[in-house]
Amino acid sequence: MTDEAGPWLVVGLGNPGREYAGNRHNVGFMVADLLAGRVGARFGRHKRAVAEVAEGRLGFGGPKLVLAKPLTYMNLSGGPVAALAQFYKVPPAQVIAVHDELDIGYGQVRVKCGGGEGGHNGLRSMSKSLGTKEYVRVRFGVGRPPGRQDPADYVLSDFGAAERKELDFLVDRAADVVESVIAKGVEPTQNLYHGV
């Protein structure tokens, strides 16, 4: 069991810049922003890592939460994550990456610990920089691209009009999943949310 008194590092994966804000690839940033609002924290530039960071507590007297949005672009996310994990003394088991997932249908949120990266360059960079794959992933399903569209182009495009109708609700659910992992653990969270 992890040390509940220690901080949790929740990393929203995405790309910095207004032109990427609505992209499928930036759903991690969206979830991080929502979580910051929930704990009453504001993002600011970190002095030791190329990332924006917000700090708060989960509930009254709950564990410390360090929310991070790396500013290095997705493919180089690992460097800032490793720097923050070292700075805040967060073990990999208490690092949560929130990211888009092509292999899950839109509207589904899944959680797992460890495993492969499924071609996700942000996760690949994190695993390399942390020196382990044994961190938690909250996977936000964006589905496969239609027709022959290149997956890279698909994730770097904005959510469609029909998807946007549900997006706020789904980002909210993903934030609930993150909070559940911290409060209850991965397996109880899987039991709660994977049937939904």
From TrEMBL:
Gene Ontology molecular functions: peptidyl-tRNA hydrolase activity; tRNA binding
Per the UniProt entry, the Enzyme Commission number(s) are 3.1.1.29
Q: What class of enzyme is it?
A: hydrolase
Subcellular location, record wording: Cytoplasm
Q: Does the keyword Glycoprotein apply?
A: no
Q: Name one GO cellular component term.
A: cytoplasm
InterPro entries listed in its UniProt record: Pept_tRNA_hydro, Pept_tRNA_hydro_CS, Pept_tRNA_hydro_sf
**Family, per entry:** Belongs to the PTH family.
Q: What does this protein do?
A: Catalyzes the release of premature peptidyl moieties from peptidyl-tRNA molecules trapped in stalled 50S ribosomal subunits, and thus maintains levels of free tRNAs and 50S ribosomes.
Protein name per its UniProtKB record:
Peptidyl-tRNA hydrolase
GO annotations under biological process?
A: protein quality control for misfolded or incompletely synthesized proteins; rescue of stalled ribosome
**Organism, scientific name:** Micromonospora acroterricola
